[in-house]
Amino acid sequence: MNENQNNQLQLELSQEVAQGEYANFAMITHSSSDFIIDFARVLPGVPKAQVKSRVILAPEHAKRLLGALQENIARYEREFGPIKIHNQEPRTIAPFPVGKGEA
Q: pLDDT per position in the chain (103 positions), as tens?
């Protein structure tokens, strides 16, 4: 069936993109017209984190993403139990303090 007959979107996923990129830190900024989410990998003792991926969203899409994440987290927690976040400030996304790094 084609896209118009069953109203489904088909996504093409290349092998390179399918491998994914691990990120344990996200920084979100915005302007009046865009939300920008930078995903990075922060390692203990390494003072610099390199952004691995940047996603730019219209405000409407950012709000849809928020809703989709909330829905999926609720499903996950129903199936596997609550996700616990230990020793973190509510707005911190990194899994450990990202203050001054030392190598």
A: 444 557 899 999 999 999 999 999 999 999 999 999 999 999 989 989 989 999 999 999 999 999 999 999 999 999 999 999 876 555 556 555 555 444 3
**Helix, strand or coil for residue 69?**
helix
The whole-angstrom separation of Cα 75 and Cα 55 is 24
How many other C-beta atoms are found inside a 10 Å radius of the C-beta of residue 40? 20
Q: Are 50 and 40 in contact (CB under 8 A)?
A: yes
* Both tokens assigned to 58: 């219209």
Give the separation between CA 48 and CA 20, rounded to whole angstroms.
Answer: 21
**Of all helices (H) and strands (E), which one includes residue 25?**
strand 25-30
Answer for the pair 28, 36: CB distance below 8 angstroms, yes or no. yes
Contact status, residue 22 vs residue 41, Cβ threshold 8 Å: yes
